[in-house]
Amino acid sequence: MVDFGFDKLALIGAVALVVLGPERLPRVARTVGHLLGKAQRYVSDVKAEVNRSIELEELQKMKGQFETAVSDVHSSVRQEMDSASQSLQSTWSDLSIDGTAPDGTIGGASGPVPVYAHPKKNWRVKRGATPVWYKQRQGVRRHAQSGAARVARFRPPGRA
């Protein structure tokens, strides 16, 4: 870059004062300052754009790497799922149609097949099992109350 020292700037200022005159020198200096500011802003915008494009290229490279890693993981998981499915199918095919294995047991155990029964949990029973004193302490409402009844309950005395 061009190196301007104090002596060179003083020489340029003196020549400009002689050539332009004291009346037009401030206006020209202001115009030169505006042009230099615009040039600096333009250079900084170009630098920012170059940095953004470099970051974009890096992000695209990282995206490609992540996509390849995801596809590798997906294929390995798919292979494991297929092998597990095949082993399950082979085990299932070893069982006969009536549900007994070739050795006469059911799924490797003897006895009847257990049937699933829903636990029949009832939330009303559980709430009913809570003592009344505990509900009062915790502020649980025990009775349904209409909006008008709630208003009347909390209305100050003396008002109808």
TrEMBL record:
One of its GO terms (cellular component) is TAT protein transport complex. It holds the Pfam family TatA_B_E. Residues 140-160 are annotated as: Disordered. Keywords: Cell inner membrane, Cell membrane, Membrane, Protein transport, Translocation, Transmembrane, Transmembrane helix, Transport. It comes from the Bacteria. It is found in: Cell membrane; Membrane. It is a single-pass membrane protein. Its main location: membrane. GO terms for molecular function: protein transmembrane transporter activity. One of its GO terms (biological process) is protein transport by the Tat complex. Belongs to the TatB family. Part of the twin-arginine translocation (Tat) system that transports large folded proteins containing a characteristic twin-arginine motif in their signal peptide across membranes. Together with TatC, TatB is part of a receptor directly interacting with Tat signal peptides. TatB may form an oligomeric binding site that transiently accommodates folded Tat precursor proteins before their translocation. The Tat system comprises two distinct complexes: a TatABC complex, containing multiple copies of TatA, TatB and TatC subunits, and a separate TatA complex, containing only TatA subunits. Substrates initially bind to the TatABC complex, which probably triggers association of the separate TatA complex to form the active translocon. This is Sec-independent protein translocase protein TatB. It comes from Roseateles aquatilis.
